[in-house]
Amino acid sequence: RNLPAEPELPAGTLEALRAEAAVCTRCPLHANATQTVFGEGPRDAAVMFVGEQPGDQEDIAGRPFVGPAGRLFDQVIAEAGIDRSTLYVTNAVKHFKYEPRGKRRIHQKPNMGEVQHCRWWLDLELTLVNPKLIVAMGATALAALTDVKGRLQDVRGKAMATEGGRTLFVTVHPSYLLRIPDERLKAEEMARFREDMKRIQGLM
Ligand code: URA
Q1: What is the pTM of this model?
Q2: 3-state SS track over 27-78
Q3: Which terminus of the chain, N or C, has fewer Cβ atoms within 10 Å?
Q4: What are the angstrom distances between the C-alpha of 3 and each of 6, 7, 23, 129?
Q5: Strand 159-161 to strand 133-137: parallel, antiparallel, or no bridges (unpaired)?
Q6: Is the beta carbon of 89 within 6 A of some atom in ligand 1?
Q7: ipTM of this predicted structure
Q8: Counting Cβ atoms within 10 Å, is residue 116 exposed (0-12), middle (13-18) or buried (19+)?
Q9: What is the pLDDT of residues 150-203, one digit of tens each?
Q10: Is the distance from the beta carbon of residue 64 to the nearest atom of ligand 1 less than 6 Å?
């Protein structure tokens, strides 16, 4: 009867949204993940970066882009003169999807149903943060952010106007770069990614 009241978070804030997302069961992915990995960054960030889904390390830390892809991301944006603390960084899907293999958890690509379910959160993050520039990293982020069908390479590296008066910039996902086995191709793709980040810095 005399239980202390839960502190009420003001409705319609990013903090309230994060608290709601922490108990999300909209799709089955929550069942095997450690926790929801919600976006992070200033509530009034001018730029939002969107990845695919948390990986193994993000799942444990509860923060986006802190594993190998995150370290590459940090390094390349820093070289381009972008300060991560000014960015809102999030993912299309907020739970880690994986297949257990021995002691390892192998990342599995989210399917379109999972991406559509999780759009609920991404759309609300977009509404609340209201960035002027959105950066989609990879095809999953692109699919979550637009209805554009087609190949990532057709829209990659272009700044496109979106309905809400925002700009959408599409680039590859840093995990893609980490997986390229051929050293020469990898160097070329890294150079293109660095160029993209410099272009983004110019749009900020
Ligand atoms: N890959 C992503 O898409 N997001 C993360 O947070 C980490 C790796």
Answers
A1: 0.94
A2: CHHHHCCCCCCCCECCCCCCEEEEECCCCHHHHHHCCCCCCHHHHHHHHHHH
A3: N
A4: 9, 12, 21, 34
A5: unpaired
A6: no
A7: 0.93
A8: middle
A9: 789 999 999 999 988 999 999 999 999 999 999 999 999 999 999 999 999 999
A10: yes
Look up tokens 């948390």; give the residue: 54
Distance CA 126, CA 164 (A): 10
Pocket lining: 110 vs ligand 1, CB cutoff 6 Å = no
d(CA 64, CA 56): 10
Question: How far apart, in Å, are the Cα atoms of 190 and each of 15, 29, 73, 176?
Answer: 35, 31, 11, 10
Closest CA to 189 of 28, 76, 48: 76
- Sequence letter at residue 31: A
Ligand 1: atom nearest CA of 141 is: 3
Q: Are the C-beta atoms of 58 and 34 separated by less than 8 Å?
A: no
Ligand 1 probe mutation, 52, 60, 94, most atoms within 8 A of CB: 52
Q: Are 28 and 22 in contact (CB under 8 A)?
A: no
Ligand 1 neighbour 55 (Cβ under 6 A)? yes
In short, whether 90's Cβ falls inside 6 Å of ligand 1 is no
pLDDT band at 148 (very low <50, low <70, confident <90, very high): confident
CA 141, CA 202: separation in Å to the nearest integer?
21
Kindly tell me if the per-residue pLDDT of 4 is higher than 70. Answer: no
